[in-house]
Structures are given as C-alpha cells and as structure tokens.
Amino acid sequence: MKWYLDRRSALTIGACGVLGLRAGASPQGSVKKGFCFDPSKIPDWRARLELLHAHWFYTWGIEMPKGVPPGIEFIPMIWGQWTCSQATIKTLVSQQHKTLLGFNEPEQQNQSNMTVAMALELWPILMESGMRLGSPAGVHPDGEWMTSFMKEADRRHYRIDFIAIHAYMGDNPNHFLARLERIHALYKKPLWITEFAVADWNATADQPNKYSSDEVCKFMEIVLPALEKLDYVERYSWYSSPYLFHPLAASVLFNADGSLNRLGKLYSSF
C-alpha cells in the first residue's frame, strides 16, 4: 500500500520548519499520541508531557509518578515476573486504571528475559485485573517468541485485547507501515505502538548516525498522519532517548535544555 502526506492536514510550513498545528488538529493533541520515559532520568518529565501534548504515557512501571498534569492518562506496565503478583494487580485495580501493558521485551536477556512458558504461566494473573490488556511487547512482534506465545495463549483462550509493538527501523515509511499491516493481519487485533523511532543500529561514537534530523522529520510527517487514519492503530508513542545513544541520535525530541527541537515540535503538533 502506498502512503503519502496529505498536505492539507499537515503543518502550515512543513516538517522541519514547524510553526503551528496542522489544520483541524486539537490544541490538546491526538488521543492516540503518547510518550514513554523513565521519571528517574527525566526530572522535567511533567513539562515534557505538556510540551508534546501527550494524551497518555507509561514509564515501564506500575507506580504512577506524582504530579501528573490533568487530562493525561498513566498506563501501568507489568514489566516482568518480579512485578507480576496478585497483590500488585489488586493495587492497580483499586487505583481504577483502565488499561494494563504486559511484559517488556521478554525475549531479551537484558530486559524482562522470560521464556514463553513462564509468560504463559503468569498471564492469568494479569487477566484477573479485568482491565484492557496489552500483549507482551517483543523486540520482534512477529518473531518466534511472540508467535509462539500468541498461538498458545489463543489455544488456552487467554485474553489479550491488543498487540503492543516496538519498532526501531530505518527511515522508509512504507516499510514501517507495511510491517504494521502484516502484524495486524497476523494477530487480527488492534495495535499499540508503544516504542518506535528511526534507528541506525550501526551508529557509534566513531561512526555517526546515517540519518539526519531532516530525514527523520520526513519519516514522521508521513507516518503520523497514516497512524491517525488507521483504525487498527489505537495508540502510539515515540521513544526519545534521554541520553546520548548513537543509534537513536537523530530521533530525539528535545534539546539539551528540555525545549522541543524541530522533530519534537512536529510530534507535538499531532
């Protein structure tokens, strides 16, 4: 499928020279748009949420940070086996959260590091919450770990209300959007893109990121309108590294002083 930017719904002067909201956009931002961050690494996270006009956020944890600006929804996550207990679920239910995210990158040793069998054993605890429940967010949402988990969860009639996706790809918007189509067709469930950005995984201190901020802007100005139009995409959250991480250097949303850079202004405008 060919995707393109409808200039009538874009910003008034294009991606990398943002002055204001695109025509018809809400000053509060899209209800789909979120932000993910670790509050311990971003002291001014409240201001950043408001600058981005985010409608929701998550922190990879279960505790809602204090002082969340009004009108912005916190989504808790059961990151791994250490936070997965009936006591935790009972606390989250008492706090009246509506949605719960599942395990974070379980196939990665430096993340929640869970076997498919372990995740399946613990999943009924998450279902006890009664909240809308997102799948584990795999590094490869269509890879062996995730497909095995979803196949067995379906056989056991486990409840999974939407698929959480991480996507760190190149700057080709058609490849990105085509992948979303394939994943939706594979699982036939709504999608939450809980982490995505343009990444150059070969970039290092000695080998600069091959993508420029202009190229990432062009990617975003095509992808975000498409995500807004796709009925099966319920939520999305761009990942902006809070420190210098060379593979994602062109995808950060903020300047060093916490103000929005050009890419951040574009994300804020949706």
Structure, explained:
This protein is α/β, with parallel strands linked by helices and about 270 residues long. It contains seven helices and eight strands. It has helices at about 45-50, 85-95, 115-125, 145-155, 175-185, 215-230, 260-270; strands at about 35, 55-60, 75, 100, 130-135, 165-170, 190-200, 235-240. The strands form two sheets. A six-stranded parallel sheet has the order 3-2-1-8-7-6, covered by helices on one side. A two-stranded parallel sheet has the order 4-5. The longest helix is centred in the C-terminal third of the chain and has 17 residues, at about 215-230. The protein is globular and about 50 Å long. Mean pLDDT is about 90; it is low at about 1-15.
Provide a quick synopsis of the model:
The chain has 270 residues and is of the alpha/beta class.
Features:
270 residues, six-stranded parallel beta sheet, two-stranded parallel sheet, 29% helix, disordered N terminus
Write the layout of secondary structure elements.
Blueprint: E1 33-36, H1 45-51, E2 56-58, E3 73-74, H2 86-94, E4 99-100, H3 116-127, E5 132-133, H4 144-155, E6 163-169, H5 173-187, E7 191-198, H6 213-229, E8 233-238, H7 262-268
Parallel strand pairs: 1-2, 1-8, 2-3, 4-5, 6-7, 7-8
Helix pairs in contact: 3-4, 5-6, 6-7
Largest sheet: 6 strands, parallel
Question: Which spans have pLDDT < 50 for at least 5 consecutive residues?
Answer: 1-13
Arrangement of strands in the largest sheet:
3-2-1-8-7-6
Strand-residue proportion: 5-15%
Radius of gyration (CA) equals: 18 Å
Count of discrete alpha- or pi-helical segments spanning 4 or more residues: 7
Helix content: 25-40%
Oligomeric status: single chain
By helix and strand content, what is the structural category?
Answer: alpha/beta
Which sequence of SSEs, written as H and E, runs from N to C?
EHEEHEHEHEHEHEH
Q: How far apart are the termini? A: 23 Å
How many strand elements? Answer: 8
Mean pLDDT: 92
Overall morphology: globular
